[in-house]
Structures are given as C-alpha cells and as structure tokens.
Amino acid sequence: MTAPMSEFDEKRVTVGGDDIFVRTAGRGPPLLLLHGYPQTSVMWHQVATPLIDQHTVIAPDLPGYGRSDAPDGGPARYSKRRIAADMVALMELLGYGRFAVVGHDRGGRVGYRLSLDHPQRVLALAVLDIVPTGVLWANFTVNRALTYYHWLFLAQPSPLPEMLIGHDPGGFLDHTMASWTKAGDLSAFDPLAMADYRECFADPAHLRASCEDYRAGATIDRVDDEASFANGETIGCPTLVLWGNAFSAGDGRPPLEAWRPLAPDATGRGIDAGHFICEENPAAVLAALQPFLVQHVPRPR
After folding, report:
1. 32 forms bridges with which residues in the sheet?
2. Is the pLDDT of residue 249 over 80?
3. Residues belonging to the active site
4. Residue 129 in contact with residue 275, Cβ under 8 Å?
5. Distance separating alpha carbons of residues 57 and 32, to the nearest angstrom
6. Rounded to 5 degrees, what are φ and ψ at 28?
7. pLDDT band at 80 (very low <50, low <70, confident <90, very high)
8. Is the entire prediction scored with pTM above 0.85?
9. What is d(CA 198, CA 202) in angstroms, rounded to the nearest whole number?
C-alpha cells in the first residue's frame, strides 16, 4: 500500500520560533490546504494529488497538530487569528505573497480569519463543512449542543479533557471520526491515513494543543468573530462553501445563509457525505473545487 501523499516533498519550516511540518508538490499558482480536527495534512491525499498539475499545493500540519510543534501558550497561542498569521508567515518563507486557501473544519476557521485579517493575501477561499464560529455560538441550541458536544467538552479547563481522552486517545479518535461520517464507520478512510491520525493525536502535547484550539474557539475566536460582525467586516475574495449533506455543519439554517454575515457573495453546494467530505466523496469535492479555482486563481502567462 502506497503511503498517502508520498509524491509530496516534506520539510520543517520555522515560524516565530516554532517548527511547522509542511508537504509541498506541483506547479502553478500557490494553493494552501488547511486540515481540521482531529486530523493532519494527510486528510488531503485524495484531493491534493489531482490539483498538483495546475497548482503548487502547500499542505501544512497546523500548529499543535500532526508533526508540527505543539507550543505552550494556552488558548491565545491557538486562536485562529494567531494561526492565520503563522500561515501568512509560512507562505512568505516559502516565497508566496498571494495565494488561494482551502480549509476543512478547524482549517476552514483559520482560512476565513486569514481572509478577514489579511485580505491582500488571499486570491480565493473555500471553506469545507463549517459555518463561522461566532454564528454557531450565537445560535447554540439543545440540538446543536448534542451534535457539537465536543465544542463544550474540549473547551473545559485543563486538564479535564486531556485526562479523560488520554486514557484511550485512539478509541476517542476512532469513535469521533466514525460518528461524523455518513456511513457511521471508518470505511471511508485509508488505513495508512488513520494510522497517521492516531499516532499524532496520541502525543500528549498535541492532545493538549487540540484542546487549546477549542478553548480558543469558545473564547478568543468567538469574540473576534463578534467584533467582525459588529464592524461590518466581510470577506472580499471569491468564496466557495461546501458541506456534507449528512452532517449538521450549520446552526439550523442552510450553510450558505449562515455564511451571509461574513461572506455575502459566497456560492456553494452540498456534498453527498458526512463531515469528512474530502475522504468520503473526493470526486464531488474536486468537481466543485477545481472549476472554482480555475475561475478565480489566475495562472501566470
């Protein structure tokens, strides 16, 4: 069995004193792929490879995930504003001043904050199976809480979630990922990809960091979004929203409606999948994503 993303070069890039592990391949305009919880950049393996003929694909492990460093610093270190700044610095170090961004789950939250805070950097944005953090918190209901229980659990003060998950991190990861798929099992995932997710998630430092990510989401990220809403900030670049029809990505409204406060001109569609659309239905994701990128990300002449 061939390891996922084996055709990609791998390196570690130091950003602000912390190392970020990044995979790169391809040619053409730069495309930054940002993974979500509880995964690594390997989650892109079925989507990234078809894109490298037209794009230079850059797929980092986010700080606190995968093989990137998991620095201390509490929730502030893992705010989406801070991680977005890290991604801008990473791309500058790799030689890219402007680029497209595609983010799934937590990576999507980094992506839209990057687009708001650094609009001159982002040519186009695609967010996969999320609605804005502030929108979701503002419309939290009993049904939302039952679906998004992990938002509340992982945001509890340290060391409660770390202690409980740490007794069986692989079991927690397997249950979480299976329950968010349309099939309700792990059949959509490459066994080698799952092995990568399990190995990285089991590291105590990265487990702590992933909880800090959600603590930031419940506090700093929510406040930052509320400020953006109050100030009338919107995402100016072309924006594509994709979501899994079998997973509740929104706040009870259609996802595009939930995005209107921040991305009034966003377009998008549902995908026949659960939450992990890039692994459950990569063909449908590519069918939506590739024309969007061709239209909005110019190639050098």
Report:
1. 58, 101
2. no
3. 105, 275
4. yes
5. 6
6. 105, -170
7. very high
8. yes
9. 6
